[in-house]
Amino acid sequence: MFTTPSILKLGIYDLIINTVAVSLLSLVLPVLANANDKQAIWLGIWLTCFACGTTLTTIAYTVLGHRISSLRLLQLTPIGQAIGLALLLWVFADIANTSLTPTTGIIAALGMFLYGLNLGVGSVVDATVLQKLVPEAKRGTVFSTFSSLRYTGFPLGLLLSGILLEQNNLITLFGTFIGLLLVNAVIWLWGRLEV
After folding, report:
1. Residues 165 and 28 sit within 8 Å (Cβ to Cβ)
2. Distance (Å, rounded) from C-alpha 59 to C-alpha 8?
3. Integer Cα distance of 54 and 143 in angstroms
4. For helices 70-94 and 122-133, what crossing angle results, to 10°?
5. Whole-angstrom Cα distance, residue 154 to residue 166?
6. How far apart are the first and last CA of the chain?
7. Of 22, 17, 6, nearest to 180 (Cα)?
8. Contact criterion met (CB below 8 Å) for 7 and 127
9. What average pLDDT is seen over the chain?
């Protein structure tokens, strides 16, 4: 894994994406939905929009993936995720002193759809790239190491999210998420994918 820079970069890339996704989906959104007059319906709508986005891109990649550059997807999808989270930042920074309205709830749903649309193709690209880069004899070791690396950020992401939610500091929380995703886009701007 360490002898092929593309695999290590892909592992770091996944670590960042998974840290943001797990923190957002398992902690941040439920807390925000609960904080707004316990409107669980919004949480259901937001997660449905997210799931529809990921499903659409997975289907699209299945059909058109052979025509799309994996490197281009690795560069552009974190930017799309960041735009989706910027919509959430806009909604939740705006409602800091008021409650969620149907309009702001729909904008947040659009942000979650856009986030999911750009997240859904990630694991498919990973699997494709890893299959091409890793010799068959080393796949067990590399895949397990890769899998371990991609999940190591969960505790830190959840802790940071909890602290910032407790402080009601949503601007810093979403700003951190967006910044991390933009770092992911930059990781692949220079160099190439060795496939």
Report:
1. yes
2. 27
3. 23
4. 150
5. 18
6. 14
7. 17
8. no
9. 88
Residues 6+ away with beta carbon under 8 Å from 144: none
Over 60: is that where the pLDDT of 195 sits?
no
Tens of pLDDT, residue by residue over 164-181, are: 999 989 999 999 999 999
The structure tokens listed for 146 are 């890769």
Structure token pair of residue 157 = 């992401």
> Which residues contact residue 43 at a Cβ distance below 8 angstroms, ignoring those fewer than 6 apart?
29, 30, 33, 34
Q: What's the CA gap between 84 and 68, in Å, rounded?
A: 22
Asked if 184 contacts 78 with a C-beta cutoff of 8 angstroms, the reply is: yes
* Alpha carbons 59 and 70: distance in angstroms, whole number: 16
Each residue of 81-122: pLDDT tens digit?
A: 999 999 999 998 866 556 788 898 999 999 999 999 999 887
Q: Report yes or no: 53 and 191 within 8 Å, Cβ to Cβ.
A: no
Cα 118 vs. chain centroid, distance in angstroms? 8
pTM for the structure as a whole: 0.91
Burial class from Cβ neighbours inside 10 Å (0-12, 13-18, 19+) for residue 144 reads exposed
Hey, what are 156's tokens? 């830190």
